[in-house]
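Troubleshooting entry. The earlier prediction with benzoic acid gave an output that would not parse, so I re-checked the input for stray whitespace and re-submitted. Clean input:
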Amino acid sequence: MPTLRLGDTVPNFSAETTKGNINFYEWQEDKWVILFSHPKDFTPVCTSELSKIAVYEPYFSKRNVKFLAHSCDSLKEHLAWVKDIISYCRHLPSNDLHFPIIADENGELATLLDLFDRFTDENNKLLTSRPLYIIDPQHKLRFMLRYPVTTGRNPKEILRVLESMQICDRIPQVETPMDWMLGNKVLVKSEVKESEIRRIFPNGTQTEFVTCRGAIRSVEDYELF
Ligand code: BEZ
């Protein structure tokens, strides 16, 4: 069974989805992809997750992100379930789910993408629990989380991680501290030289703390985005 780790290239694949067949790399274009799998259609937590993520979609689109949902159910089940999700979701701006849901009834894609944990249904069929991958425009796996079946994921946390990665990609000299949120200060990496700090941050940095190895410096992130 292949394993996928952060930094790996996510392999290309073809899939049947609620929006037609896709070739992953072509469908991705030059965007980030949030691939999130769920265990089973028509179940309470999964329905709450897909409808919530649909409400959050505009915030992610602004960040050049496409959503791609997945489960080991059939296309027929997905298409029926989408109607439920739409009616469940009272805050959906349009009457549609814009993102595709992959139908992976026999679990081939889940195996290829290392999405299975040790969770099975009553017939011992392997189902995914709640894995989520963030894949960058170069198809690299940049973030993964795996939540248990009984716990729905948090779109605000996923957006927070995405914004952190995007700011750190744009300015490789910075990183974000624990609980950082967009609008908070970012940290300057400790290896960045004084002369580079002055060049990159002409408005200056703040010294947060001086350790025995040097200063921990921060910058307002609105100066960077
Ligand atoms: C749920 O999403 O609520 C769920 C999914 C799989 C098994 C049981 C419940």
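This one parsed fine. The two ends are 40 Å apart (CA to CA).
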